[in-house]
Known about the structure:
The complex is a heterodimer.
Chain A: H1 4-25, H2 30-35, H3 37-47, E1 64-67, H4 73-82, H5 123-136, E2 143-148, H6 155-166, E3 172-178, E4 181-182, E5 185-186, H7 187-190, H8 196-202, E6 206-211, H9 215-224, E7 233-238, H10 261-268
Parallel strand pairs in A: 1-2, 2-3, 3-7, 6-7
Antiparallel strand pairs in A: 4-5
Chain B: E1 10-11, H1 12-26, E2 30-34, H2 44-49, E3 54-56, H3 61-73, E4 77-83, H4 92-101, E5 107-111, H5 129-134, E6 140-142, H6 147-159, E7 164-167, E8 172-173, E9 188-192, E10 197-201, H7 205-218, E11 223-228, E12 230-232, H8 236-246, E13 249-252, H9 261-272, E14 277-280, H10 292-298, H11 303-315
Parallel strand pairs in B: 2-3, 2-4, 4-5, 5-7, 6-7, 10-11, 10-13, 13-14
Antiparallel strand pairs in B: 1-8, 6-12, 9-11
Helix pairs in contact in B: 1-6, 3-4, 7-11, 8-9
Amino acid sequence: MKTNQELSDIASQVRRDIIRMVTAAKSGHPGGSLSSTDILTTLFFSEMKQDPATWTREAKGQDAFIPSAGHLAPVYYAVLARAGYFDPAKLGTLRKFGSDLQGHPSVGHIKGIFQPSGSLGQGLAAAAGIALGKKMQGQGERAFALLGDGESEEGEIWESAMFAAFHKLDNLVAMTDWNGMQIDGPTATVTSLEDLREKWLAFNWDVIEAEGHDFDSIKGAFELARKQDGKPKMILFRTEMGHGVDFMTNNHGWHGKAPSEEQCAAALSQLKETLGDY
Amino acid sequence: MKKYIDTGKKDTRSGFGVGLVEAGRADSRVVAMTADLKPSLKMGDFAKEFPDRFVECGIAEANMVGVASGLALTGLIPFCGSFAEFITGRVYDQIRQEVAYGHTNVKLASSHAGITLGEDGATHQTMEDIALMRALPGMTVLVPCDFNQTKQATIAAAKFEGPVYLRFGRPSVPNFTDPDEPFEIGKVYNLNPGKDVTLIAMGHLVWEALQAAEALEAEGISAEVLNVATVKPLDEKAILESVAKTGCAVVAEEHNAYGGLGEAVAGILAANRPAPVEFINGRDQFGQSGTPAELMAAYGLDAAHIAEAARKAIARK
Lengths: 278, 317
């Protein structure tokens, strides 16, 4: 288990990576990447049973993670690279022609990616399939999925919610990056998701609420999610879009826009370089 | 010509059900999934024999396809089944991302395909599924012609590594292929060598093509009959060799004119060996309620229409 300081240092570097990747690519999705950075950093460095040295797409002996909101590719790639799945030097090739780091996650090129994602609403089903497959074969590991709150407007999410509860997939842990923002504005003004907690409870899931930028809170939520009580887990992480960069914070305009060079420099001045830039 | 005997009409979906049980006995990784259509997909025997390997998904096909991809990742071999409309059009995006692009070992079992679904009418009569599935990179598309071949194709699909779309139907149709002949994915079956025209068919229209060939024989026309049980990847060599010999072709399919077997064959011939081709298909229209036989005749999919198309093709040589 990493200390909060260690996690904070990794997360700061991951945020720098995200800003630099998206700036170099001149397109991409920094907002949600920054809001889910602390969650994914804690997941990969403190919670998941995972090992890049023995990783295979079959997830034998390991936990699996599906980023259902595939546009969070920048944070996903940065966390994978910093966790040792591939050389961080590759991060600079995001969205470039010929790069393995496609605009949205793609399989078969780099380690750590189980399924493609990008078309929203599909990753929870895939994670549920992995969780069920592991149960059917007597394997003890778990499947994790990260959803966007806006993504949860997709109908398939609720099909999967019914399925996972009915099949008692308590080895499935879904996480919502609940930053309250989507492309067209605050989720409350686009189409209301409220009451998100009550919705998941009504679908017969264990629901855990946590602060997505507080490492104690994140760790506590993951600890509660280990409970084997026959119910799938949903952790609703309250987060801020663009967290860590003041001019991006809580601004839905940064859902899918690259910073200029000047904005990049301003953002990096707010994020400590801890592990060395790629 | 070679004589084929209908050993008694049977539905191809039952061939799938029997094949699924055999595949399940042969390999403990085989899993069956359905979206509230267990009886229609003939999955009852599998579910009874392997209750722990049967996954009921409820009326939620999108989730079913996604779950299938996850099961496949863990090493299982899921067959997820529904009506052709609901396992293609309804879930095209899920198939595209989770199965085709993800290249997961998922078998899409598609029943009640085509207009011969019959009385349920146009909402359920999918004539576009082959076009959708053919257009996906890496998708293997199988359309066996009768009960026996559907059973064998199911067994072959379970052994094959990669995404498969397996199409079959609701009505009882003549059962005439060798029950013990293993299905070879990628093979075009030459059922009757001929020299004047090549009749190229898929699914139960293969039987109609054989009937047409018999009628043509009585007129002194020698028709070669090809059973294209693998629509993708399509055996170009078999098509080209046959048309090189006969000089013209008829393509018969229970599908829309666009994106089906007819266009596939036309593309091969245009690129390699232009020849007159006539097309038997559902044209570009939706179906309607009726019995399979009524619809086959009304939409021009039966042996009489194939024979007429053959005469036209020969006249154009």
